Amino acid sequence: MIKVGVFGVGHLGKFHLNNWREMEGVQIQGFYDPNDETAGEVEAKYNLKRYKDPKDLINDVDAVDIVSPTPYHFELCEAAIRKGRHVFVEKPLANTMEEAKAIVKLTKEAGIKLQVGHVERFNPALLALQQTKLNPMFIEVHRLAQFNPRGTEVSVILDLMIHDIDIILHLVRSEVRSISANGVAVMTDTPDIANVRIEFHNGCVANLTSSRISMKKMRKMRLIQKDAYISIDFLEKKTEIIKMQTEKRADEFSFDIETGNGKKTIAIAYPKVPQENAMKLELMAFVEAIKQNRPTEVDEMDGYRSMEVAHQILQKIQRNQPVA
């Protein structure tokens, strides 16, 4: 039985609690949240022990689940790691690159398991492509959300775009060559909408647009690679593959077209999207990494690299700000 302590039981923290409660082999030891009203609601609804001191909760558990606001990630991670506790921490890994670097160092020294909550890695629409060879050379992303004051302690880059940065770095597996970026602060003091172009050394180009002031929600990624166009809808949980091939298959819709190189067969496939809860999958993966003593699926270096690119984007945006 793995004893887990949850740090932060606000909007997202409650989703974590619900998922932990459904998992076998896990016991929620208690929670820490400095907000008395929120803590009282959770005590009453979940019948869980509230810890007034985060250090006491860390002492009583095997693993911590950090769902607190980003500025508190480092101090909680540091305290847990120094006690030898395994850590699940929501994205972004930390508030600054210095803090992220320190967490990476502490994790390596302690030999504990650390997983960063990049939940879109476990989105069923992306999981549907596990059997598909992905080698994208052009990527287009739109992640749009309606304004919500929650989470605005960080920019839209670290709030929303970082999900797609993580996935792109995971798929492309090449060093970044250059970044171009523009962003505008509308509702907050940090960029609320941004457009970014990332060029990789292997020739891949990724264009990303993220906004938290849109009228409608959208979370789409399009991958273009040799002979294939792949569309992933993270919001609607749909995946589509359009590709050229030499022969028709019974399980695909296909048609022929004439090209300058002769007749080609275009096939459209809709991979089966598993009916899974992405958040529960990521927490289960964390637990299995602890039990099986294997690397976590989104480790501290994944979290660090995503943050590194995100901060490079923010620096580019700051340099491009018009002078008043």
Helices and strands in order, then pairings?
Layout: E1 2-7, H1 11-21, E2 26-32, H2 36-46, H3 54-59, E3 63-66, H4 73-82, E4 86-90, H5 97-110, E5 114-117, H6 124-127, E6 138-144, H7 156-172, E7 176-184, E8 193-200, E9 205-211, E10 218-225, E11 228-233, E12 238-245, E13 253-259, E14 262-269, H8 278-292, H9 300-319
Parallel strand pairs: 1-2, 1-3, 3-4, 4-5, 6-9
Antiparallel strand pairs: 6-10, 7-8, 8-9, 10-11, 11-12, 12-14, 13-14
Helix pairs in contact: 4-5, 5-9, 7-9
Overall mean pLDDT stands at 92
Helix content: 25-40%
Shape designation? globular
**Tally of helical segments:** 9
User: Termini, distance in Å?
Assistant: 59 Å
Q: Segments where pLDDT lies below 50 for 5+ residues?
A: none
Compute the CA-based radius of gyration: 21 Å
* Count of strand segments: 14
Write the CATH architecture name of the largest domain.
2-Layer Sandwich
CATH level 1 name of the largest domain:
Alpha Beta
Q: Could you say what the CATH topology of the largest domain is called?
A: Dihydrodipicolinate Reductase, domain 2
Strand content: 25-35%
Strands of the widest sheet, in order across it, are 7-8-9-6-10-11-12-14-13
**How are helices and strands ordered from N to C?**
EHEHHEHEHEHEHEEEEEEEEHH
Structural domain tally? 2
Biggest sheet character: 9 strands, mixed
